[in-house]
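Q: what sequence does this backbone want?
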């Protein structure tokens, strides 16, 4: 079922970063964070194939996947998007940041834009995220954004739900 369909890919502009569609020119810079079904790309060809599958998922209305771009340099620093649950009016929010950009606030800015878009443009009723118990930076990011832990999904995975109703 197509839950969300856009005539044009929705780009979102913020003061520090923007969320935009990933192009073929971006793929070489994103190989190390290119994943599909938890499998990481090992080369440009695999990353391009994965991106084509991601783009089809977006066209089918099952997900939305943005590149996070530093507005000052116009360079891609990571990715984020909604990957599951859209058919129920919900969205699992996920993200990956290029290692050289850790600790610089890019993901906080990008995820804030994605949360706002999910709530106000897509009308999502619930936003959640899952991460590993060992991923301390992701846990801190989610808590900083207003997510609260809601479940231990497995021995190593925990789920968080967005609950903050402040400035978004």
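A:
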């Amino acid at each position: 079922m197509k839950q969300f369909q856009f005539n044009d890919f929705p780009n979102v502009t913020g003061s520090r970063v923007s969320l935009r569609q990933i192009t073929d020119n971006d793929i070489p810079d994103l190989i190390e964070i290119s994943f599909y079904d938890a499998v990481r790309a090992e080369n440009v060809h695999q990353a391009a194939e994965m991106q084509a599958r991601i783009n089809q998922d977006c066209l089918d209305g099952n997900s939305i996947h943005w590149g996070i771009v530093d507005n000052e340099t116009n360079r891609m620093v990571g990715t984020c998007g909604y990957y599951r649950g859209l058919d129920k009016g919900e969205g699992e929010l996920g993200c990956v940041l290029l290692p050289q950009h850790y600790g610089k606030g890019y993901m906080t800015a990008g995820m804030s834009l994605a949360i706002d878009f999910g709530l106000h443009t897509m009308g999502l009723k619930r936003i959640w995220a899952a991460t590993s118990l060992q991923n301390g930076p992701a846990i801190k990011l989610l808590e900083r954004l207003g997510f609260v832990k809601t479940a231990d999904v497995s021995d190593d995975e925990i789920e968080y739900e967005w609950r903050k109703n402040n400035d978004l």
